[in-house]
Amino acid sequence: MENQSNVVKYRYLGINTQNERVVYMHENCHICISEGFEALTRIRISTLAGSIVASLNVITSNLLLHDEIGLSDAAAKELNVSPNETLYVSHLEPIESLGHVRAKIYNQKLGYRAYNEIITDIVQGNYSNIDLTAFITACAGNRMDLDEITSLTKAMITSGTQLHWNQEIVVDKHCIGGLPGNRTTPLVVAIVAAFGLTMPKTSSRAITSPAGTADTMEVFTNVTLSPEEIKKVVAQEGGCIVWGGTAQLSPADDLLIKIEKALDIDSEGQLIASVLSKKAAAGSTHVVIDIPVGETAKVRSTKMAQELQNHMETIGNAIGLNVKVVITDGTQPVGRGIGPALEALDILKVLKNEADAPKDLTERSLLLAGELLELSGKVDSGTGYQTARELLESGKAYKKFIAICEAQGHFSQPVLAPYKFEVRAKKSGILKIIDNRKIAKLAKLSGAPTAKSAGILLNARLGENIEKGQLLFTIYAESKGELNYALEYKNYHDNIITVI
Amino acid sequence: MENQSNVVKYRYLGINTQNERVVYMHENCHICISEGFEALTRIRISTLAGSIVASLNVITSNLLLHDEIGLSDAAAKELNVSPNETLYVSHLEPIESLGHVRAKIYNQKLGYRAYNEIITDIVQGNYSNIDLTAFITACAGNRMDLDEITSLTKAMITSGTQLHWNQEIVVDKHCIGGLPGNRTTPLVVAIVAAFGLTMPKTSSRAITSPAGTADTMEVFTNVTLSPEEIKKVVAQEGGCIVWGGTAQLSPADDLLIKIEKALDIDSEGQLIASVLSKKAAAGSTHVVIDIPVGETAKVRSTKMAQELQNHMETIGNAIGLNVKVVITDGTQPVGRGIGPALEALDILKVLKNEADAPKDLTERSLLLAGELLELSGKVDSGTGYQTARELLESGKAYKKFIAICEAQGHFSQPVLAPYKFEVRAKKSGILKIIDNRKIAKLAKLSGAPTAKSAGILLNARLGENIEKGQLLFTIYAESKGELNYALEYKNYHDNIITVI
């Protein structure tokens, strides 16, 4: 199809559509007319070196000449084009794997080949946001069985870079989110790496929460490292804490997560495939998974947690990973801060063994580090927790943490946001309920995680005796607008923290 | 939130994104910075007169000044803005009905209120394409029960204009697609209106097929009429055949159909709600529904057809419509033409009682018109078909058809496309199989329905004795590129028509 009649000249427009690949052509462009293209038509754009698929937006003004073509920033970057470069436009051949997505919509069970074809097309950018959404929705609501989740996981592992560490044991941990402030990962890595185990940790950014581990770590150091840079850090320090996205581990996952974020959903199958594929692609052999359970956490009942535990351990086994799931208390936020910088402050206090370090964060980190030490077989059963405690209290974990941050680029101190509002108790009583979802929502409205220093500082804990007028929590924001927006929500919801 | 700090000036950009409402703001716009907006953030844009919700695309070039805002054509039209007009930008309050969509994704049953809130938000343009896709996918694959489909149908009826005809009996018909060339509607309307019944027919454009009834009728006359214009035509002629979209009947349907088209799916629940809501909103009281059954038709087995029949009659009853479902033969295309103009030619031949009029199209139209006459109670049971036949053979139906077209604006003769390719039999034998899906795909690749005169003319019928070299079918296209694209597909698939 690459004949003279479908040649156009690239013109830079500068439109950021996030990940979506959009192509802009004039309504009077001869190709649009001869080929019958209209807005939203999916078409293929090629250079001599490569090609991409993009959705058409039709220009009805003079933004483009008739023989010019524009691309969204994501599309231009992927195609690597320069102004005035010649591009070739052609009809999109049918994306065969969309047939599997339709089959899944109609409740059919898909096999490994189907998932592999779907994931391959997603990684190549051949799916529109509409296609991605249909795939995610069709797989949500427990519509994938264990075979299918295993197939999806395997397909996601091989879809991107796979790291190898030439180590018999490579440990990792993961927490099934939903618990604001639960930032144990940097602590566990510091402890376990200080022990001498290899723990190349890749973390995600927030999906629907006010902060992901990568967001929090970004307060301290650079988290966007290439696979080569990660290797160097891990070879030097035994551990790292980086964002998994740029490392091109399970790259389909980041595209799927963007849509899940837009929909504010988190499906079990995608969740398991996401977590385990990242672990396996990162070259891990032994993984501890923390599932906090609580009425307002992501997993609301012990029964659901046990099912997830069962599924994760079974699928872990099927793909050759030693998985241990630990079910923990998820009734209230962990630590005091919710939001990247506020959580970073909690982490520092724990590492420095400060008197006012949040005890719950310390204890959870020691528990998980202990489990990981035991799962690795390098310490005797029953001695993991004590070993972890010694590494923390001796300052070895703190030293290791600073060393890891510096190896990743630099170590920076967290700072607080300039705007704040203190929320005080309207009456005396006992602090009975903290609504995790509402607290998380409030932190997001205040700007977290995009505004790194925004979020919520909890000044009281569950079960505490509260005096009228006592400080319950503080809202931090980087702009007045965001502070007002958070306050609007707070004023409308008076049951974020309940004192009875 | 409408203070001085979120005021911007509108600048015309001229970007057609089809239905999607997109807002363009500069990355250095003070609002983006202060509010933490990034690409794909959903935000509210207001004038003093009204407001819309749109997805943000961030301009990284000089297309916009920092205090300017651009809108996609659909968004600008809805907001009715003029260049340099002052616009107000604010955070989007949570779209509450998306909570129901999430519940549906997680397999919960929704009630009338939930569906009504969802449809209301969809009609107001509050859903992004991602939201619409999630809703459609969550409802597909038989995930709605009869109560839910009834609720959705009722919600869709009241979401737009409802027509009233001051007639005790208002008849209508509908065919559950999947059978190329099955263009009985214009014939049934002509016959039934010639009899004296009121039949204000609103039809859809093609969803995934090479032509919808509205596309075919557009070859003859204007099909984009306002409710007032429709009333006038029906008062004068007793019938009309118009596109249902502009009439604002069940307006949510058109938005949902665009996404279904992009996904190439058609879910049972949406299908029933779409058909029955359009009928009820159009003020119909008695409706005959044609379900063609065949291996390559939309409904593939009699069992599936009977289930659909049962569901449609039950839900029809629940919303106060007299519905009769007729299950018909769907093993091969009806008539000879597939594509708007080619089907229009078939219709004319039948109306004019020409010797080479396609018999199957004639017989199907008489059957359905007869059923409709009987369902109305205006002719005795068993005499419908004969009555219909007399109206057609006498030329009364033809006269009525011309009169309806002229009342809708004009009557134009169909013309054939300039480019064609004749496909001939490679060997002698019996024509055993016509693959409806592949024939439809071929017609679409040749340009139908956008290219009105493009499509396929079948020159042979199922069961016919074929000589080697005999003409099997002809591909028509309006451009050489489209003809080549169709030929490429044909050359790759040699089982479109099978001679054994």
TrEMBL record, chains A, B:
<dbReference type="Pfam" id="PF00591">
    <property type="entry name" value="Glycos_transf_3"/>
</dbReference>
<dbReference type="GO" id="GO:0006213">
    <property type="term" value="P:pyrimidine nucleoside metabolic process"/>
</dbReference>
<dbReference type="InterPro" id="IPR013102">
    <property type="entry name" value="PYNP_C"/>
</dbReference>
<dbReference type="GO" id="GO:0005829">
    <property type="term" value="C:cytosol"/>
</dbReference>
<dbReference type="GO" id="GO:0009032">
    <property type="term" value="F:thymidine phosphorylase activity"/>
</dbReference>
<keyword id="KW-0328">Glycosyltransferase</keyword>
<dbReference type="InterPro" id="IPR036320">
    <property type="entry name" value="Glycosyl_Trfase_fam3_N_dom_sf"/>
</dbReference>
<keyword id="KW-0808">Transferase</keyword>
<dbReference type="InterPro" id="IPR036566">
    <property type="entry name" value="PYNP-like_C_sf"/>
</dbReference>
<dbReference type="GO" id="GO:0006206">
    <property type="term" value="P:pyrimidine nucleobase metabolic process"/>
</dbReference>
<dbReference type="InterPro" id="IPR017872">
    <property type="entry name" value="Pyrmidine_PPase_CS"/>
</dbReference>
<dbReference type="InterPro" id="IPR028579">
    <property type="entry name" value="Thym_Pase_Put"/>
</dbReference>
<dbReference type="InterPro" id="IPR035902">
    <property type="entry name" value="Nuc_phospho_transferase"/>
</dbReference>
<dbReference type="InterPro" id="IPR000312">
    <property type="entry name" value="Glycosyl_Trfase_fam3"/>
</dbReference>
<protein>
    <recommendedName>
        <fullName>thymidine phosphorylase</fullName>
        <ecNumber>2.4.2.4</ecNumber>
    </recommendedName>
</protein>
<dbReference type="InterPro" id="IPR000053">
    <property type="entry name" value="Thymidine/pyrmidine_PPase"/>
</dbReference>
<dbReference type="InterPro" id="IPR013466">
    <property type="entry name" value="Thymidine/AMP_Pase"/>
</dbReference>
<dbReference type="Pfam" id="PF07831">
    <property type="entry name" value="PYNP_C"/>
</dbReference>
<dbReference type="GO" id="GO:0004645">
    <property type="term" value="F:1,4-alpha-oligoglucan phosphorylase activity"/>
</dbReference>
<dbReference type="Pfam" id="PF02885">
    <property type="entry name" value="Glycos_trans_3N"/>
</dbReference>
<dbReference type="InterPro" id="IPR017459">
    <property type="entry name" value="Glycosyl_Trfase_fam3_N_dom"/>
</dbReference>
<feature type="domain" description="Pyrimidine nucleoside phosphorylase C-terminal">
    <location>
        <begin position="430"/>
        <end position="497"/>
    </location>
</feature>
